[in-house]
Amino acid sequence: GNGCGHTLLTPHSGTLSSKNYPGTYPNHTMCCWRLQAPPGSSLLLAFGDVDLEPSEHCAHSSLLLADPQTGTAYGPYCRNSVPSAPLLVTNSSTVTVLFNSTSHRSGRGLLVSYATSQHPGMGAATPGMQRHPWDVPDPLPTMCFSVYCPAGCKDIHGDIWGNPSQGYRDTSVLCKAAVHAGVIADELGGQVTLSREKGITLYESAFANGLRSKRGSLSEKRLVFHKVCCLLSPACDDVLEVVTFNASSWWHEVDVLGQDRAWVAERAALSTTGHSWAAEPGAKAAWLELDLGTRRNVTGIITKGSSEQHDYYVTSYHVSSSRDGKNWRPYRGSSGQEDKVFEGNADSQGEVSNAFIPPIVARYIR
User: Fold this and answer.
1) CA-based angle 338:335:232, to the nearest 5?
2) pLDDT band for position 237 (50/70/90)?
3) Which of 83, 111, 292, 315 could form an S-S bond across to 49 if both were Cys, CB 3.0 to 4.6 Å?
4) Would the pLDDT of 267 be above 60?
5) Closest C-alpha among 291, 316, 292, 293 to residue 303
6) Nearest to 53 by CA among 106, 110, 125, 111
């Protein structure tokens, strides 16, 4: 059977786990991952968790790594024969990871990440045999520090508490919080810069970049992510001014008293009180257009529904941009393969943030 769990492999980093992780992995399964880095670089593997039922010579369940370029093998590993260090530095750009199981009763399975030698900062996040290779280093530097987060952190097991504006409890899974904060794209991973600051009384929950954080109570320290060096003011957090709003259509509501109320494009500004913009009922491929007045660097978007007498909100959307208002380019995100679908709101009350990684440089946004 297929013993592969959550897997995201890219040329520069990735994450892989056994099926059902952190629950017990299945009986009689096998999974083989082939990691391939760019020529001239070597692979670094971080063992977040290797918990396979013990057996003599790891005969019943095992993790084995093979380097075909040098003929070197690492392992087999299981619970009574774990890796000697949480970080394995290879001399190869190609590594095969083989996991297999026979009959067993216990074991969480395995969680492994990798990056290339171009990103040695991943090792800074793995002192000791911690539960995840993306947990907060302990002891953690008091000043600004940088860690490399591999691709595929969004769907790993573990909780985050807080939001991009307040920061996150330092018990949060660090790289998962970085995806929530919008400083890296889950499909690519990347270097993150953050600081450990004084904790706060309450960390509010938020939905951002496809992740829901939890509401958390007081902690002594918190993590604050920075989009630029944390010794500077993050200028990219400014709210851009919209010069003109336009839309494919808008709804002319006639209330019970026969009065007309227009849900026009200008009412789409997030700070607007009362009703918002709404497309004409039944309209297909509706769009809202923002003119920023001049070409700007756009790093993200915040959406909210309208609770004014109606529970209206947008659940998903595409984004396009233009420099002249005539020629439009769909936003495809870091993968570049297909138009990105952004996850919107689930109610008309809360705000939902989505980051543009890479940013959009344009005057017009749809």
Assistant:
1) 130
2) low
3) 111
4) yes
5) 316
6) 106
Number of domains in the chain: 3
Of 226, 256, 284, which closes a domain? 226
Give kind and range of the element (H or E) at residue 177: helix 174-181
* Residue 82 structure tokens: 């774990």
What's the 3-state SS for 106-134?
CCCEEEEEEEECCCHHHHHHCCCCCCCCC
Buried b (16+ CB within 10 A) or exposed e, 315-324: eebebbbbee
> Which residues fall within 8 angstroms of residue 266, CB to CB, at 6 or more apart?
245, 272, 277
> Which residues are bridge partners to 226 per DSSP?
193
How much is the mean pLDDT over the chain? Answer: 88
Lowest mean pLDDT, pick from 72-76, 127-131, 285-289: 127-131
Considering only the C-alpha atoms of the chain, give the largest distance between any 2 of them, rounded to a whole number of Å. Answer: 82
- For 353, the token pair is 């943030």
Q: Which residues contact 94 (CB under 8 A, 6 or more apart)?
A: 34, 35, 36, 37, 43, 67, 68, 69
Provide CB contacts within 8 A for 13, sequence distance 6+.
Answer: 113, 114, 115, 116, 119, 122, 148, 149, 150, 151, 152, 188, 189
Helix/strand/coil (H/E/C) assignment for every residue in 11-25: CCEEEEEECCCCCCC
Does position 4 have pLDDT exceeding 90, yes or no?
A: yes
What's phi and psi for 265, nearest 5 deg? -60, -35
Same domain? 106 vs 37: yes
For residues 226-244, one letter each, b for 16 or more C-beta atoms within 10 angstroms of the residue's C-beta and e for the rest, the string is: bbeebeeeeeeeeeeebee
Asked if 90 and 169 sit in the same domain, the reply is no
**282: DSSP letter:** T
- 3-state secondary structure at position 176: helix
pTM exceeding the 0.70 threshold for the entire prediction: yes
- Which helix (H) or strand (E) segment is 288 a member of? strand 288-303
Helix (H) or strand (E) holding 175: helix 174-181
Residues 319 and 253 in one domain: yes
Q: Are residues 9 and 93 in the same domain?
A: yes
